[in-house]
Structure formats: structure tokens, C-alpha cells
Amino acid sequence: MKTTTVSLFLSVMTMGAFQPAVWAQSVTDTPMREVTKGVYQHHHEFYTQLVVITKKGVAIVDPDGAQRSAKLQEEIRKLTDKPVTLVIYSHEHYDHARGGQIFKKEGATFVSHEKCRAALENDPQGQVVPPDTTYSGETHRLTVGETSIDLYHFGMSHGTCMTVVHLPKEKVLFVTDIHEPKGLTSAQYLTADYHYPGVYRTLKRIQAELTYDVVVGSHAPHSSPKAFNEDVGMVEYLYENVLQAVKAGKNAEETKQAIPFPPLNEWRNVKEWPAHVAHMYEALNQGK
Ligand SMILES: [Zn+2]
């Protein structure tokens, strides 16, 4: 397989609600990569989708816009003639949720957490297929062919209705927008609904309750359990240190001065660290 390495830059105008600053991306002949038997990740234009191919049909997580879903459909056709029967929405943001119409035409059922429903039904551009069914509470098991797919909602994190996807038999973890391997999220995406203590709690619960040999992140061409755990460690360091600063009565500026970036090597976007400290500080100091 031909492989070249290129650095890719994107303008903000072409992106949705999340964007890594720079990826050193390995570009291969196909954007579809098998991560374990029957389970694939499809990485295209800075978005990564999880694809589960079974004898009965195909499940995907997030259409990620009309262009990417069309590309995904094309790639799935190279691997199976089975239709996409299940589309799982990770959360309510339209950059991930739009573009599922081509899978609706194949007969797919669309599933989200119930807290996503209102947002998914009210896309002003009408490009989001509303969920056919929703789940409530913390967990829900779906079955496609021979594969179980578990959905977990650990409360508010990035957005209000995040679903973490886990394949218990294959030990595959798929996380959207709350895990960037070896990189800090650009400050512009630390928005009001990027609830940092909730992100911390969600990451810690994943680590404590789920087993994973494979980790796929929604914007990364590659991740791993090691990269995921390192990322959780970074967020834990941030949470614990900011919490101590708030307890000590430090203001936001003093807190930024007091907490250096942790000793992690080869991380991208480290210049964004003060914004991360400030975002965590605001949440913890306001009882969020
Ligand atoms: Zn999002």
C-alpha cells in the first residue's frame, strides 16, 4: 500500500465545530482501515467514523456531513453488499449529525440519546435525519447481526447528550470530540457547552468501567489505548490542579500562572494550555 506523509492545514471556514490545528497525517490509498475483525474506522477530511460490518447489515457512528457520508457509503460498498441498517448519533452537533439521508434511503434506523432529540429534530437547514429511536439513562445495548454495540451516556460533557460507543466483545472504544491524542483542543472549541468537569468525569468513567484494546477518536487518523490514557491523565491533572486553586481562593489569572503544562512529550497545540486552565477554572469556580 502506498503511503506518504503530509502536513495538512485547514481554514476555519471549511470546518465544522471541531478542528485539530495541524495533523501530520498518514495518507493511504484507502481511508477505510480495519481496526479489528469486522470493525473499521473511516477517516476522511478530519473526521473519523466507526463502521461495524456484520452478516446482517452495517452500523456506523455519525454521518459527519453529506460529503463524508457519500464517501463512506462508497467505501462500505467495496467491503460488503449489506446495507447500512443502523446510524448512531454521538451527540447533537450538526457537523457530525448532518448528512445521513443516503443511509435513511438504505433503510437505516437512527439512534441517539433522548437528550439529543430536540436539537437533532430542529436543524434549521433540515440536513439532520431525526432519530427514529432514542435511549434514556446511562446505557443501552444494540445488536446488529452477531455484534453487540453498547451506548453509554455519562452526563453532560462536550454537548449535553454525548454517547460513547463500546463494542464489548471486540473491545473497541469510539469517542467523539472529547479525546484528541497528543493534542490540546483549539481554544475556539472550548465553547459554553464544552463542559470540562463533565468531560473529565466521562473520561474517568470510560477508563474505570470499559475495557478497550482499540481506541478510535472522531478526528484522529490514529489513536490507541496508550494515547487515550495519556489524554485522560492530562485532563485529570488539569482538573485536580484547578480544583486546588479554586479551593485556595486563587483568581483565574493566578491559576493560569500557577499551573504549567504537564510533562508530556510531543504534544501539539501546547500554546492553548492557558485557555484550557481558564475554561476549567470558570466551570469549577461557578459550580458547573
Ligand atoms: Zn461536537
Overview features:
single chain, 288 residues, alpha/beta, Metallo-beta-lactamase, Chain A, 7-stranded mixed sheet, 5-stranded mixed sheet, globular, binds zinc ion
Short description:
29% of the residues lie in helices and 24% in strands. It has 288 residues and is of the alpha/beta class.
Describe this entry's structure for a reader:
The chain has 288 residues and is an alpha/beta fold. It has a single domain (4-285), classed as Metallo-beta-lactamase domain (Metallo-beta-lactamase, Chain A), CATH 3.60.15.30. It is 29% helix and 24% strand. It has helices spanning 66-77, 94-97, 101-105, 117-121, 196-209, 225-247, 252-258, 273-285; strands at 4-8, 23-27, 32-36, 39-44, 47-53, 58-61, 84-88, 109-113, 133-135, 139-144, 147-152, 164-167, 172-175, 214-217. The strands form 3 sheets. It has a 7-stranded mixed sheet with strand order 3-4-5-6-7-8-9, with helices on one face. A hairpin with a 2-residue loop joins strand 10 and strand 11 (147-152). Helix 5 crosses helix 6 and helix 6 crosses helix 8 (273-285). The radius of gyration is 19 Å and the shape is globular. Residues 1-29 have low confidence and may be disordered. Bound molecules: zinc ion. Zinc ion is lined by residues 17-18, 91, 93, 96, 158-159, 177.
Q: How are the SSEs placed, and which strands pair?
A:
Layout lengths: L3 E5 L14 E5 L4 E5 L2 E6 L2 E7 L4 E4 L4 H12 L6 E5 L5 H4 L3 H5 L3 E5 L3 H5 L11 E3 L3 E6 L2 E6 L11 E4 L4 E4 L20 H14 L4 E4 L7 H23 L4 H7 L14 H13 L3
Parallel strand pairs: 6-7, 7-8, 8-9, 13-14
Antiparallel strand pairs: 1-2, 3-4, 4-5, 5-6, 10-11, 11-12, 12-13
Helix pairs in contact: 5-6, 6-8, 7-8
The structure holds zinc ion.
